[in-house]
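Below is one record:
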Amino acid sequence: MTRGLGRILVVVVSIGCASVAGAQPAEPAAAAPSGAAGEAAPPEPAPAAAAAPAQTPEVLWAAGTRLRGIFVPAWFLEAFMDHAHALNSVAWGLEFTRRKGNLDIVFSLDVGWYGAIDDANWTGTDGFPSDTYWTQFRSFVFTSLDVSLIWHYDFIDWLALRYGGGIGLGFLSGSMNRQLSGPACTSANVDSNRSQCGPGFAGGPAGFGEDLSSYRVLPVVAVLLGLRFKLHRHAVVTVDGGFHNAFFFGAGGQYVF
């Protein structure tokens, strides 16, 4: 009897433990990721690529030479005197250039020869006849050093517009002789009648050398407009016109290092 009661208690206790265990609340399910059920989470956006640094233009150096025709029209000189003559000559120069981007800094040496000026009558601001002189130029040479800023605008890879200007100093060498042309000299005969308006009239003063000391050192003003032709990576040809203490037109070449 006692052994049968013990078995019954064991069975009752086992059923009670099972009931208690089944009554325990279930663990909550893990929360589904946001978004539609079953969908994978969107990928993280890729970091933006860093902006490339701006490229600095390369610095280039060039050396070259140029040849120019130089022109001083009579009308230009007659802005400062009553009667003048055109001065036409030639100039040769050397150039050394620093190029960065579209800007050239040009250092130049220029030599202009005025050795072929004809003897003629020139009239100063005091008019005819008192300020008319038979004038002889002797070996006039104008040598200058200047620096210019020249910009470029590329039309195409091998052709560019170039424009700019500069300043410098020049030295005038040579001599000039003058002789009073005579009391009969007028605007009508100043260039046509040597006997009435010319050197050596009767009783006239002898000729004299003009003092040029005040004109030996002169400022230089330059303005330029032209084209640049790129023939090769190392070879450039320029064609220019402008003003360099005289009007000019010419061409030059440069070797680019």
About this structure: Residues 59-178+209-256 form a domain with the Porin fold (CATH 2.40.160.20). The mean pLDDT is 84. Residues 2-22 form the longest helix (21 residues). The radius of gyration is 47 Å.
